[in-house]
Amino acid sequence: GAATVVDALSTEGLSEEPVQQEIVGVEGAADVGGSEGVMGKKMTQLRSSRRRKPARRPRGGQDNEEDECDDEEDEDEEENRRQREHPFIVTEPGEVARGKKNGLDYLFHLYDQCREFLVQVQNMAKERGEKCPTKVTNQVFRYAKKAGASYINKPKMRHYVHCYALHCLDEEASNALRRAFKERGENVGAWRQACYRPLVGIAARDGSWDIDSIFNSHPRLSVWYVPTRLRQLCHAERSRLCTASAASSSVSGGGPTTAQHHHHQHHQ
Amino acid sequence: GAATVVDALSTEGLSEEPVQQEIVGVEGAADVGGSEGVMGKKMTQLRSSRRRKPARRPRGGQDNEEDECDDEEDEDEEENRRQREHPFIVTEPGEVARGKKNGLDYLFHLYDQCREFLVQVQNMAKERGEKCPTKVTNQVFRYAKKAGASYINKPKMRHYVHCYALHCLDEEASNALRRAFKERGENVGAWRQACYRPLVGIAARDGSWDIDSIFNSHPRLSVWYVPTRLRQLCHAERSRLCTASAASSSVSGGGPTTAQHHHHQHHQ
DNA sequence: AGAAGGACCAGTGGTCCGTA
DNA sequence: AGAAGGACCAGTGGTCCGTA
After folding, report:
1. How far apart (Å, rounded) are the C-alpha atoms in residues A240 and A230?
2. How far is CA A218 from the centre of its chain?
3. What processes in GO biological process is this protein linked to (chains A, B) (predicted)?
4. What residues form DSSP beta bridges with B102?
5. Closest chain A residue to B267 measured between Cα atoms?
6. Confidence class of residue B82 from pLDDT cuts 50, 70 and 90?
């Protein structure tokens, strides 16, 4: 049965289709497997229910076709249609998306996969004495594609980075948000938008408003560029607070009362 | 007189023409002056003997013309000739270049100036909530130009980065090399080439052969990209040693004897 | 000849918008 | 309508080569 697969808080746990390792060797790439040290748990590669036909037909070699069809009603779009990834829906933690959909655990899993691809690219670069990327760059996306992970692409990953950030930085809040938005029947776009606010709150609580340093201090998040929009929101909110506290302090007499710590990078 | 200006070990000290601050305000830039904390000494901007006509005639405002001509024989190339920076010559530490030449203290000073421009760009970026560069990027070179430092350009700075690196990482060795090459009457190109080897030695002694981490751990050097050629040389030398020690250990019986620490990033 | 730097180029970060 | 991702674009890192 498949209905009992709930309540695995992390990105793993939707244990249908235990697919074979998809991180295959590409141009001498090292399998980096167990040397993670971040999530603790063994990161067995899982994929949510999804038919994988590679987008372009005449490509290289390894196309690990999984032919266990446990999806219901996939009628005829088998042969060589322009096959996109199924759209995401808002799922609770541990919940498997049904029908032609993908869940959010799967989304977050993609970020971890990208990080693994980055580690492989880094290992190759060091081996060869080349410049070593610290972030998930175009080079990493290209590598992922060549390694057979055709379902990974830059626009998608960039689109949801801040959702993954919330998942990393405050998993409880992230989970609560997912449950609330699923409850209300909101679509993925709405959930995605809603992920911004809690992150701004985290930057505020941190005191520095420095979203870059927050990203960089988290081991799984540090490999991702801070999304422009998130940076803008943090900056706008800091300015808003700054203005407010300046006004209130000039009203209350201008004494050194409330918030002194911002603008520490002011002119000299 | 000017002949007594020797023996200032650092990049400062060639105290002719104490020119006014050339880090002028550009589009709201903060003068960052004293908040350095790296060199300790007050970094009063000095320039070696050099006539400054800006390259392009019809430009904005501030062109701090210094008209004390202590240079000998600059005949007639005053008006609007295509004026390049004087070429570098190999000088001892503290030595002022005579004639239409620039010395190496001046060269190294340019690197410090670029870092100050970077700090200004960083401050502006933080102020505005924009992405904040960690290295001397195109943006910084553009900013330097707009700030009136038309004598700074990317090809030049990139060309001599490793020379500056040696100056930062082992000033004694750097000074010795300069004296030796001046003694022998070598040109700048030869001196520049010779700067590579001691750096490879430093990477070797460090044990990791990781020239990137060596650059990044030095506060003044960390803002510069590691030159491709230097990275290649370090890698090649590591490989050479690796091969040699592998051969010798297979000759001596293959026991775990000599160098085990490299290839720590090997396949799993 | 030796050297300074304008200007070019392949590949980047970023994301829009034609597609399904 | 909501969403996935090919493909474009301005500006980057890197350095060659026409210039002086």
Report:
1. 15
2. 13
3. regulation of DNA-templated transcription
4. B88
5. A30
6. low
